[in-house]
Amino acid sequence: MHFEHQSPSYGSVPASKGEPLPVGPSASSPRSSGQAAFRIDVRHEHDAVRVTPVGEMDLATVSQVDARLRTLRDAGTRRLVLDLRGLTFMDSTGLWLSRRWHHDAGHGGPEFALVAGSPAVQRVFEMLVVPEELPFVVG
After folding, report:
1. Rg of the chain over all Cα atoms, to the nearest angstrom
2. How far apart are CA 103 and CA 96, in angstroms?
3. Is 2 exposed, middle or buried (0-12, 13-18, 19+ CB in 10 A)?
4. Residue 122: which of 96, 86, 95, 93 has the closest Cα?
5. How far is CA 80 from the centre of its chain?
6. What is the pLDDT of residues 93-128, one digit of tens each?
7. CB neighbourhood size of 58 (10 A)
8. C-alpha closest to that of 124 among 93, 100, 81
9. Rounded to whole angstroms, how far apart are CA atoms 73 and 76?
10. Regarding predicted confidence, which is higher, 24 or 29?
11. In the chain, where does DSSP find H-type helix?
């Protein structure tokens, strides 16, 4: 897979410090217990593995994504793509996961790239990190 970098456009939301930052469709209202269960889709492509979390990535689910990425890395995967388009919600734990995997890629880990999610998900990146610091690619 050839990684073509993109610069996603972002809106703005007031930042708060302390707890993970909730953004997404459910950020302004309590989350419904009737939402579909979180899952992680994995697709092996010709030269990369695409990992697509579907649903809400937050403190309760981010460790599942990290575990899946670690399993793929340990199996010898050389290129990982974290595709955020399946997320309906993401808090700052998803950002920190992305930053750590990007950092690891620069220190002997597999190549790592991100596919931008919805504008609400992307606001987490805008508010807490300079977007150009992370390797966003065209989906």
Report:
1. 14
2. 10
3. exposed
4. 95
5. 12
6. 999 999 999 999 999 999 999 999 999 999 998 888
7. 19
8. 93
9. 5
10. 24
11. 62-74, 92-105, 119-128
Round to whole Å and give the CA distance between 114 and 5: 9
Local structure of 91: helix, strand or coil: coil
Q: In angstroms, what CA-CA distances link 30 with 15, 25, 33? A: 19, 10, 9
Burial 59-97 (b: 16+ CB within 10 A, else e): eebbeebeebbeebbeeebebbbbbbebbbbbbbbbbeb
List of domains in the chain:
39-137 (3.30.750.24)
Taking the model in full, what pTM does it have?
Answer: 0.74
β-pairing, 79-83 with 49-57?
A: parallel
Rounded Cα distance between 24 and 13, Å, is: 11
